[in-house]
Backbone:
C-alpha cells in the first residue's frame, strides 16, 4: 500500500469523533502539521 501512496499520493481520512489528526487509510501516515500549528498558537497566545 505504501507504493500506491508514493505513486498517487496519500488518501487522507479524518473523523474528529475518533481521530486526533488526519491520517492516510492506505499506509497509516499521520499529518503532524496540525499538532505543530496548535503548539505554535499556544506558545504565541499563552506568553
Residues:
Amino acid at each position: 500500500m505504501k507504493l500506491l501512496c508514493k505513486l498517487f499520493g496519500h488518501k487522507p481520512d479524518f473523523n474528529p469523533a475518533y481521530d486526533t489528526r488526519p491520517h492516510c487509510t492506505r499506509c497509516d501516515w499521520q499529518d503532524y502539521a496540525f499538532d505543530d500549528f496548535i503548539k505554535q498558537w499556544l506558545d504565541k497566545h499563552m506568553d
Q: What stands out?
A: Strands lie at 12-13, 23-24. The CA atoms of residues 1 and 26 lie 6 Å apart. The mean pLDDT is 81.
